[in-house]
C-alpha cells in the first residue's frame, strides 16, 4: 500500500481546548503516525498513513472536534513520507506568522462538576477544578502560544499527580494549562479590607454564613470581583444600593440552576439555550409573580437579569441559596475591581468581607448581557465568554485599530479576515476606565500580534477615544461617522458588502452637519453612506444635561408642539418655576441648546410628559422604563407627519407629542400611552423604509443603535418590514449599542 504524508494547519480557537490530545487520540484510532503541536497560528499536524484512514482522520477532525474548539480554516499540504512509527505531541513552536486565537473563559463542565461534589475525588470541593473543556482562558493569558508559562498559572508548579495528568494524552487534563489541585494550586481566603484573615478553615462555609446574615461579600471570580448579597434579603439589597451608590439600576442575579431560574422568571426555549450556552451570559427574563426575591433588585423593570453559575466556587456557594445578587464590584462609573489590593482599597466602604484567592487575573472582564428579541438572541454587552472570539469579516483587510465611542466603550483590532472586539471597557470619562482602555489596546495588540496600519475613531472631537487616536496612537487616523459605524457593524456581522437601508436610532452621535444625530435613515455600505432622512431637529436644552434630566426634552417638544408649555401638565411639578422659565428662554435665544434628531431623547420626552421619569440615575433609564410600562396590545397609533426637505424625509413627531400630552391630561393610563407611542414609531419606520425601498430598490434593512435594544419596538418593527418584502438584519454577535461601534469603525476604515 502507498503511504501519504500531510501537513495540516488549523486556525481558529484550537489552543487550550483539548485539541492536541483529541488529534493524538484520533491518530491512534486510525493507526496513523506523525505529530501535532501548537504554534503561533493555531495547531500544525503532520500525519502519515494509507489513503483511506487519512481521509477518515481529516473528516473526523471537523465532525468531532472538542466542544470549545472553533475551526476557522484548514490548510492541507502534501509532504514526502518519513516512515514514522508513532504519533507524538510536540512542544509549542514559534514562528513569524502569529495568528493563534485564545479561547474565551468558559463555565465549569459537567465532568468537573461531578468530581467537585464526589467525596472520593481528590478535587472534592476544590474551587479551582478545571480541564481542557472548561475553566479560565483569556483572563489568565499573558502571551502566545497558549502554554502554562504564558499564563498566571506559572505561579503554581504542578504536583506529581497533576503533572502526570498534564502529560497523559488519555487524560481529560492533558495540557490543560490551568490544571491544579488542592496540593499545588490556588487557594481561597476570606479576608477583611485590611487583608487580615477572617477564616482559614473553610472560607466558603464562612462566606455562606455571612451572606445568610445579610452581609455584603466581595467575591473574586474569573475576570474580577462581584459584590454578593442574599437576593431574598430586602435590607441587604438596600444596603448594597446605599454603599455602592447605585439607587435604581438593576442588579444581576445568579441562580442555582435552570429550575431555580424558572421559579423567578419566564424562561422560553431560546432563553434557556442562552442561559446554558458555553458563554453563560446574564440573560434578561420577564419576572414571574411570586418570585420571592427582594423587590428592590430591579425596580421599575419587568425583567430580572439572571445568569447561571460558571465557576466551581459559584456552584459551592449556590448549593445553599436559590439565588444571589452578583453585581460588578465597583462604584458607579468605575471599572470592575480585579486586582486584590486595589479591590480591598476601593471596596473597603462597601464589602463586609472579601472571598479572594491567589490566582492572578491578568485581564479584567465583566459579565456579558443578552436577551431574546424577535426570536433572535441579542447581545447588550459582549464580554466574558465571547471575548476574544473573532468575528468573520466579508473579506481580508489591512490591520486596523478602532477605538470605539465614549460610552460603553470597546476597541477592535482586525487581522486578515477576522475582527477581534475587546471586552466591555466602560465609560471613558472616568480616569480609571480610560487607563483600562489603554491597557486593553496594548494587551490585545500583544496577544494577537497585530501592528495596525491605521486607527479609526468617532467624528466627535471631544471623545477621549478620539483624542487617543489623534494624540497617542501614532497612527494615520480615519474619522468614521457614528451612525455609519452602527450600520457597517451590522453589515459586517452578517458578512455583507452590498448597500442596505439603515434605521439607526440611538441617544447621541456627532453628525456630519455638526448637529447631534440619533434618529437616522441611511443608505450605505461598508465604505460610504447617504442620509436619506431623520427625525426632525429639536433643541436640546442644556446639552448633555438633557440626557440626565428628561424634563428638559419634554419642555422642548411641548414648546414645539403647542407653541407654549401647557400649564396644567403635572410632569414639571417639583421643578423650580424660574428654572423652567430660564430653559424656555435659552431655547428661544438658542443658548446652549444644540439641535438633535435623537430618538433616545424623544423617548425621554415622552417618559417625562406622562410623569414616569424626570431625572435619570443611569443611561437609558427613562427609555427602559417606558418600554417596561408599555401595553403591547395597543392597535391605534398617534399621528405624525413626514415632511420633505432638500431631498430628505423629515419625521415630525409634533402631532404625536400633542396627542400624548392631551391623553395624559385626560387621564389615559401611562401603559396605554406608552404602548401607542411604540406602535407609532414602528409604523413611522415602516412607512419611511417602504419609501426608501421604492426609491433605491434595496431589499435589506439594518436595525441598529441603542434604541433597538428595546424588545417591544423591535418586535413591532421586524414583522412590519418583513411584510413589505424587506430582509431585516439585526445584531446577534455584537451589541446594537455603542459596544458594537468599534467593529463598524474598523470595517469602514479598512474599506
Characterise the protein shown here.
Among the domains are: 86 residues, Alpha-Beta Plaits (2-Layer Sandwich), CATH 3.30.70.100; 84 residues, DHBP synthase (Alpha-Beta Complex); 170 residues, DHBP synthase; 166 residues, Tetracycline Repressor, domain 2. The model has no long low-confidence stretch (mean pLDDT 92). The longest helix has 27 residues. The protein is of the alpha/beta class. It has an eleven-stranded mixed β-sheet with strand order 7-6-14-8-9-13-10-12-11-15-16, sandwiched between helices. A seven-stranded mixed β-sheet has the order 27-28-24-23-22-29-30, with helices on both faces. Strands 4-1-3-2-5 form a five-stranded mixed β-sheet, with helices on one face. Helix 17 crosses helix 18. Strand 6 and strand 7 form a beta hairpin.
List its traits.
alpha/beta, DHBP synthase, 751 residues, eleven-stranded mixed beta sheet, Alpha-Beta Plaits, 22 helices, single chain, globular
**What is the averaged pLDDT score?**
92
Q: Could you give the distance between the termini?
A: 52 Å
Q: Which descriptor suits the 3D outline? A: globular
What's the alpha carbon Rg, rounded to whole Å?
A: 27 Å
Main β-sheet description = 11 strands, mixed
Query: What is the total tally of β strands?
Result: 30
Determine the fraction of residues in helical runs and give it as a percent range. Answer: 25-40%
What's the tally of helices? 22
Q: How large a portion of the residues is in β-strands, by DSSP E?
A: 15-25%
Strand order of the largest sheet: 7-6-14-8-9-13-10-12-11-15-16
Under the CATH scheme, which architecture of the domain at 188-357 would be assigned? Answer: Alpha-Beta Complex
Write down the oligomeric state: single chain
**CATH structural class of the domain at 188-357:** Alpha Beta
What is the CATH topology assignment of the domain at 188-357? DHBP synthase
Low-pLDDT residue spans? none
Amino acid at each position: 500500500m502507498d503511504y501519504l504524508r500531510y501537513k495540516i494547519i488549523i486556525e481558529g480557537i484550537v489552543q487550550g481546548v483539548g485539541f492536541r490530545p483529541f488529534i493524538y487520540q484520533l491518530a491512534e484510532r486510525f493507526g496513523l503516525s506523525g505529530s501535532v503541536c501548537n504554534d503561533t497560528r493555531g495547531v500544525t499536524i503532520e500525519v502519515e498513513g494509507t489513503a483511506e484512514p487519512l481521509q477518515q482522520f481529516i473528516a473526523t477532525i471537523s465532525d468531532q472536534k472538542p466542544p470549545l474548539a472553533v475551526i476557522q480554516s484548514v490548510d492541507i499540504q502534501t509532504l514526502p513520507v518519513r516512515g514514522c512509527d508513532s504519533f507524538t505531541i510536540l512542544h509549542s513552536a514559534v514562528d513569524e506568522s502569529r495568528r493563534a486565537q485564545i479561547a474565551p473563559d468558559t463555565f465549569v463542565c459537567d465532568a468537573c462538576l461531578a468530581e467537585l461534589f464526589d467525596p472520593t475525588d481528590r478535587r472534592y470541593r476544590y474551587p479551582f477544578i478545571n480541564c481542557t473543556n472548561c475553566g479560565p482562558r483569556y483572563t489568565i493569558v499573558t502571551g502566545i502560544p497558549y502554554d502554562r508559562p504564558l499564563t498566571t498559572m506559572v505561579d503554581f508548579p504542578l504536583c506529581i499527580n497533576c503533572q502526570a495528568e498534564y502529560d497523559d494524552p488519555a487524560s481529560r487534563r492533558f495540557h490543560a494549562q490551568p490544571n491544579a489541585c488542592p496540593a499545588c494550586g490556588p487557594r481561597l481566603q476570606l479576608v477583611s479590607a485590611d487583608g487580615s484573615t477572617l477564616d482559614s478553615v473553610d472560607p466558603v462555609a464562612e462566606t455562606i454564613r455571612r451572606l445568610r446574615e445579610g452581609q455584603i461579600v466581595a467575591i473574586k471570580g474569573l475576570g474580577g470581583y462581584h459584590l454578593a448579597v442574599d437576593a431574598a434579603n430586602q435590607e441587604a439589597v438596600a444596603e448594597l444600593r446605599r454603599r455602592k451608590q447605585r439607587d435604581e439600576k438593576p442588579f444581576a442575579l445568579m441562580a442555582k440552576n435552570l429550575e431555580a431560574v424558572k421559579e423567578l422568571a419566564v424562561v422560553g426555549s431560546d432563553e434557556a439555550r442562552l442561559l446554558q450556552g458555553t458563554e453563560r451570559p446574564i440573560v434578561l427574563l420577564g419576572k414571574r409573580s411570586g418570585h420571592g426575591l427582594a423587590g428592590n433588585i430591579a425596580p421599575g423593570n419587568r425583567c430580572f437579569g439572571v445568569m447561571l453559575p460558571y465557576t466551581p466556587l459559584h456552584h459551592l456557594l449556590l448549593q445553599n441559596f436559590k439565588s444571589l445578587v452578583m453585581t460588578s464590584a465597583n462604584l458607579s462609573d468605575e471599572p470592575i475591581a480585579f486586582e486584590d489590593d486595589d479591590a480591598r482599597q476601593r471596596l473597603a466602604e462597601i464589602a463586609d468581607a472579601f472571598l479572594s484567592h491567589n490566582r492572578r487575573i491578568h485581564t479584567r472582564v465583566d459579565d456579558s448581557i443578552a436577551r431574546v428579541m424577535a426570536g433572535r438572541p441579542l447581545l447588550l454587552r459582549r464580554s466574558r465568554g465571547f471575548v476574544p472570539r473573532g468575528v468573520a469579516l466579508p473579506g481580508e483587510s489591512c490591520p486596523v485599530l478602532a477605538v470605539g465611542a465614549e460610552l460603553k466603550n470597546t476597541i477592535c483590532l482586525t487581522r486578515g479576515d477576522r475582527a477581534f472586539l475587546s471586552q466591555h471597557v466602560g465609560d471613558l470619562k472616568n480616569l480609571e476606565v480610560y487607563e483600562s482602555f489603554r491597557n486593553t489596546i496594548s494587551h490585545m495588540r500583544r496577544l494577537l500580534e497585530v501592528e495596525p496600519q491605521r486607527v479609526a475613531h468617532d467624528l466627535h472631537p471631544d471623545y477621549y477615544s478620539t483624542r487617543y487616536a489623534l494624540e497617542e496612537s501614532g497612527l494615520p487616523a480615519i474619522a468614521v461617522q457614528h451612525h455609519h459605524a452602527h450600520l457597517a457593524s451590522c453589515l459586517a456581522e452578517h458578512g455583507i458588502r452590498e448597500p442596505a437601508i439603515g434605521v439607526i436610532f440611538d441617544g447621541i452621535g456627532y453628525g456630519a452637519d455638526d448637529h447631534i444625530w440619533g434618529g437616522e435613515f441611511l443608505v450605505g455600505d461598508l465604505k460610504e453612506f447617504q442620509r436619506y432622512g431623520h427625525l426632525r431637529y429639536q433643541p436640546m436644552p442644556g446639552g448633555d444635561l438633557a440626557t440626565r434630566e428628561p424634563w428638559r426634552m419634554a419642555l422642548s417638544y411641548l414648546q414645539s408642539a403647542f407653541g407654549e408649555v401647557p400649564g396644567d401638565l403635572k410632569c414639571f411639578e417639583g421643578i423650580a418655576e424660574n428654572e423652567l422659565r430660564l430653559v424656555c428662554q435659552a431655547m428661544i435665544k438658542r443658548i446652549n441648546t444644540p439641535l438633535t434628531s435623537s430618538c433616545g431623547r424623544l423617548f425621554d420626552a415622552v417618559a417625562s410628559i406622562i410623569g414616569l421619569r424626570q431625572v435619570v440615575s443611569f443611561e437609558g433609564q427613562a427609555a427602559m422604563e417606558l418600554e417596561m410600562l408599555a401595553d403591547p396590545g395597543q392597535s391605534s397609533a398617534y399621528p405624525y407627519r413626514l415632511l420633505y426637505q432638500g431631498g430628505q424625509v423629515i419625521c415630525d413627531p409634533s402631532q404625536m407629542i400633542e396627542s400624548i400630552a392631551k391623553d395624559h391630561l385626560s387621564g389615559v393610563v401611562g401603559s396605554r400611552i406608552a404602548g401607542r407611542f411604540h406602535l407609532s414609531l414602528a409604523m413611522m419606520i415602516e412607512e419611511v423604509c417602504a419609501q426608501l425601498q421604492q426609491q433605491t430598490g434595496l431589499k435589506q434593512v439594518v436595525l441598529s443603535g441603542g434604541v433597538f435594544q428595546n424588545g417591544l419596538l423591535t418586535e413591532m418593527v421586524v414583522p412590519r418590514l418583513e411584510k413589505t418584502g424587506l430582509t431585516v438584519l439585526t445584531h446577534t454577535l455584537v451589541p446594537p449599542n455603542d459596544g458594537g461601534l468599534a467593529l463598524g469603525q474598523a470595517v469602514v476604515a479598512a474599506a
